Amino acid sequence: MTTATAQALLMQLLDPAHRADPYPLYTAIRERGPLQLPDNNLTVFSSYADCDEVLRHPAACSDRLKSTVAQRAIAQGAAPRPFGPPGFLFLDPPDHTRLRRLVSKAFVPKVVKALEPDIAGLVDTLLGEAASPFDAISGLAYPLPVAVICRLLGVPVEDEPEFRAASALLAQSLDPFLTITGAAGDGAEERLQAGLWLRDYLRELIARRRREPHEDLMSALIGVEESGDVLTEDEIVATCNLLLVAGHETTVNLIANAILALLRHPDQWAALAADPGRAAVVIEETLRHDPPVQLIGRIAGEDMTIGGVRIPRGDNMLLLLAAAHRDPVAVERPDDFDPDRPSIRHLGFGKGPHFCIGAPLARLEATVALTALTARFPGATLAADPGYKPNVTLRGMTELPITL
Ligand code: HEM
């Protein structure tokens, strides 16, 4: 395949016409094997085996500054880290190892478990206000995760609207598709301002919690210590920022994608309404069948060979998780939404050293939301096809109308 053909195929992912159902396009891409765009220093993987191998490869890096493309931009005067030090999602060992270990000491299962009554209360309030037709995005999937992260960090309720607005803007900074393909220009200034506002806000909150610790993750992050090592203020800010950005739209998309799949399979909706214990398999199958994070990025830290292709050091790699999850070599009947399949394998929370630290929280939120919604409205139906945002990576709906 020529480079031009590979580029044209990849750019089709940006076409809004594919957003509602990008899966035929993912299949077309996967069937061609790894796509290489040497002029863009980019290789795109889409089979399950290749994505899995990259995620486990010790030379696959997450620090974007290691890429040839970033180095070229810096040489031309671009600011390397406009938001200050990045969250550990974008760091490699030893910094990643150290920060992840310290944060994991504060973000323990007990902290997640303690949020359960809050989550149940929030869902109850949201569904208590629901009237038919009900938009499951603005009425449930969108407001829940940001409210939960605010509770987790200890952000006062009155500050939630501003927090929510900043989060919506910053979500795009996670999108490797936009940064790598150079389509990220729009809204850069707005994102920068939102990032600066959030940094100042978090600094102020840290100062308050230092004076007066609460039972929240922010206070735990301030207090965490291992062998004399602690988190600096900049590191706490970057971590909270990361938790907000990584934990918001991802969870919105999980809840919304699961609701849509259930509505399109009324027998599954009814089964969950009757047996809340089915939530776990519904959620795992949604993460596979329609993953909230459609792709992730890596950089080759050294020359690598994956899937029979050579990737020069410094090249970017895009891993199309959503394509990998429909790979017939790895999954039987991959296009079917079937929570009862014998085993559900997916990379929806990543794999290896960067495996999602918020997975237990996301699963808990989705469990509470889906079981409450189906139990309260066992006969709900899809009122109209949903609308989609333009985002490729955090592909998500703008509205999901339901007849209750
Ligand atoms: C359904 C919801 C979620 C999905 C699908 C999801 C997905 C992912 C994925 C794919 C990664 C790995 C990225 C990579 O390897 O480059 C990741 C990492 C991460 N996620 Fe999540 N996430 C979700 C919810 C959350 C929540 C609720 C939080 C926290 C409040 C969170 C915090 C993080 C953090 C901090 C990392 C970085 C881990 C590291 O680099 O070591 N995520 N997530």
Automatic annotation (TrEMBL):
SUPFAM superfamilies this protein is in? Cytochrome P450
**Which cofactors are required for activity?**
heme
Cite the InterPro entries for this sequence. Cyt_P450, Cyt_P450_B, Cyt_P450_CS, Cyt_P450_sf
Q: Which Pfam families match?
A: p450
Task: Give the GO biological process terms.
Answer: cholesterol metabolic process; lipid catabolic process
* Pathway the protein acts in: Steroid metabolism; cholesterol degradation
This protein's UniProt keywords:
Cholesterol metabolism, Heme, Iron, Lipid degradation, Lipid metabolism, Metal-binding, Monooxygenase, Oxidoreductase, Steroid metabolism, Sterol metabolism
Molecular function via GO: heme binding; iron ion binding; monooxygenase activity; oxidoreductase activity, acting on paired donors, with incorporation or reduction of molecular oxygen
| Family as reported in the entry's similarity comment | Belongs to the cytochrome P450 family.
Q: Which protein, by its recorded name, is this?
A: Steroid C26-monooxygenase
User: What organism does this protein naturally occur in?
Assistant: Mycolicibacterium chubuense (Mycobacterium chubuense)
Phylogenetic placement of the source organism? Bacteria, Bacillati, Actinomycetota, Actinomycetes, Mycobacteriales
